[in-house]
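Lab notebook, bench 4. Still working through the backlog of constructs that have no structural model yet. Next entry is a single chain of 192 residues. Request: give me the structure tokens for it.
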Amino acid sequence: MIEYPTPTRAEVADVCEAVRQQADALMLSGESAMGQYPEKALAVLRSVSLRIEKWWREEKRHEVMQLPDVGTSFADSISEEICNSAAKMAQLLNSRLELDRYPTFYFEPHGISPVTLSTRLPIFAFTTTTSVRRRLNLQWGLIPFRLSFTDDMESNLSKTFSLLKARGMIKSGDLVIAVSDMLQSIQVMNVP
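Model written out:
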């Protein structure tokens, strides 16, 4: 799309393949740097990638999820197993309820465990640190937010529900899975 306003089949195929392989980021170089249609190129990239992500989730909905082992210590292994359980639960609920939403919330200060979950499920990840939020922003399927936490999980959930409702990302009655690395817990609930 450097010289023409419509993409070639090869350009669309490249975007499709990158999304299908779960690339964490897509980049336009020539199209946006020196192309005649940079806004159009970006719109096409976004449109194609969103459509392929939706299709890919539909195709993989009924497959058994295989998540990688990344824990190096006993504490990491516990967090990893909690993530695996939450991911399988979200996949099962999405499959049975025919959902196409972001059902999983993740509360973790360091941002390590949400990466484990991001292999297939879109996730709202909450952290207290700006640098962790920036790093998580590059991971496929993660929508990170920086938020101050308290020791009260109900207060944390209330803050996140308010934030995401205000942005139109969730609504009352939506089913969510809340995972907390701080409390090492999983909760399934409806948004109040």
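Notes after review: Helices lie at 9-20, 30-33, 38-60, 74-97, 113-117, 130-136, 153-166. The radius of gyration is 18 Å. Flag for follow-up if needed.
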